[in-house]
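User: Hey, my collaborator sent me this sequence without any context and asked if I could get a structure. I don't really work with proteins. Can you help?
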Amino acid sequence: MKKIINHALLVWVWALGVLSLLPSSVYAQEQKDSIHSKVHELDAVTVTARRMPAKISTATSVQVFRKEDLKNLGLQNMGDAVKRFAGTNVRDYGGIGGIKTVSVRNLGAAHTAVSYDGVAISNTQAGQIDIGRFSLDNISTLSLAIGHDDNMLQSARLFASAGVLNIETEKPRFEDDKQSMTQILLRGGSFGYLTPSLRHWQKLGERTRLSVDASYQRADGTYPFELKNGNLMTEEKRINSDIASGQGEVNLFHTFKDDSELSAKAYYYKSERGLPGAVILYNPASDERLYDENFFAQMRYKKVFNPKWTLQAQGKYNYSWNKYEDLGVEYVNGKQTDTNRQTEYYLSAAVLYRPMDGWSFSLSQDGFINRLHTNGMNSPEPTRYTSLTALNARYQQNGWKLSGTLVGTYITEEVKAGNTPDDRKRLAPTLSASWQPWEEEQLFVRAMYKSTFRVPTFSDLYYLRVGNTNLKPEKAKEYTLGVTWSGTPFDFTDFVSLTVDGYYNEVSDKIIAFPSTYVWKMQNYGKVRITGIDVTMATAIPLADKISLNLSGNYSWQKAVDVTNKEAKNYKHQLPYTPEHNGNVSATFEMPWVNVGYTVTMVSKRYFLAQNVPANQIDGYNEHTATLWREFKFKNCGLRLQAEVINLTDAQYDVIKYYPMPGRSWRLTMMVNF
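Assistant: No problem. I've predicted the 3D structure and written it out in structure-token form, which is a compact way to encode the shape of the chain:
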């Protein structure tokens, strides 16, 4: 066992103290200014035209879905929504309860951070987040930043990631001097799907608001699919694909007399689901079950001391537990049970300093402790101490926006049994620039370079005999060059928005399971080159009085090839499950009588193994979704009725080989606000 001198914790405590003292001293020195406490400079925001889906003026690619977009397009879950971002690859194992993970530009799910109301979600055991467990019903905005967005006042953890999926929930808002608002939603559909949910907003005073969200979901998940075996096609049913889950959260928002803001959240999720397994020939048997439980509490405090200084502090405690069960004669007593328990303690502080016009600097310091307990024999019980520091600088003048970020990482670990990896120390830079050639035109040219890495997960390092404590971090480099534009080139449109980004990524020391003498072992064996183009477009067209057509779409071309070994049969072959072409087109008609939405998602052929040969090919597919909705306003309440048909053409396809996706299905929603 390695003796731990917790440098990470010492660095964090020191930096947090410095961050806390800096703004306080400046505030004390400037108290003599009689108007100081009355003047506040807001963080820079991007003002966009109506329904514009992307922040075109950012130096990095940022795509946005707003609440109305999510509802009107009939999106079923978080995975369906994220699939509609250009440059993403969502792995979906099928069904309502299927696990869904997201990778940005094929860098891997472990390189993509998921932020929930500004605080990162973690999974140190597996390194990837199941986004399918988050509801879309209480989402205000859903955005994807490749690199990171223009917000300088965020945690170092988000700056350190190759891409960030930001989930922002709705904050209470009240109209007509109301003191409360309640929303009841009931949704049902095919395959035994039923979801009731409740939301309540309450004013607790002039400066304090409370929100409560609770929902339950169940589905038997028994959906039909077609099984092809040579020239024979049979109708089968998916079994053991059921789910029952519940989640709830309580949010408190308070604004102090000095206009500083405090938000607090408590979140709980619990589920039981079947894992249907792979469909191979005519073997439908599946006895695997997965139980999940997650609780976290987080707080965020923000204070603007004066136009030059702003402070933000965050804290979070996270508890996660899961149990996997499998029945089979190959196990002792006929059953295998694995349990895992993770805990995390997380603190972050960030300070923003604007010394003069055009210049901004920020310093973010994060410290967190992760622990994992498993029920396996000789479990190492690892504990990881992490310190992340992000120093940022930005210059903005005369149409230019230049930014630089340097992230410093220090990680050390201890275990109760076995070996630990060496301490990890690394600096990772990011450079980005955007240029607006003409002030009167919303045209921007942007470029970005970003270096990131992901530390091996606890499973990579310690899982039974497969783990390898000698693993090096997996490194990634991103290069992006793009053009964004928005305007009104035609009299019949409200706006037209267009973004085009070309990119080149490199991943080295890729962590994969590799066969050794007797067993598989996690190894740094892999180098990947990724070249691609992402295109997004949106427009709004008024057709008549109170009738409009909104169009949006994106397209991605991606060549992600393995360049590890020139002698290998898969040298320069496309990576598994990576389509070369994919995209989607959405249209919504807004009319006084009824509103109509229609979306088509298109994915080209892929390969499920490393060699791109016909035997390993997965056919491409098109999926169509149609939505009808109407809102009614009454004296003291509102009613929304919505109907959706998902996979309208009943396409039979797999996202993951041998995991068939549902065919045509329907869903009805009734939402009442009062």
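In plain terms: DSSP finds five helices and 37 strands in the chain. You can pass these tokens on to your collaborator as they are.
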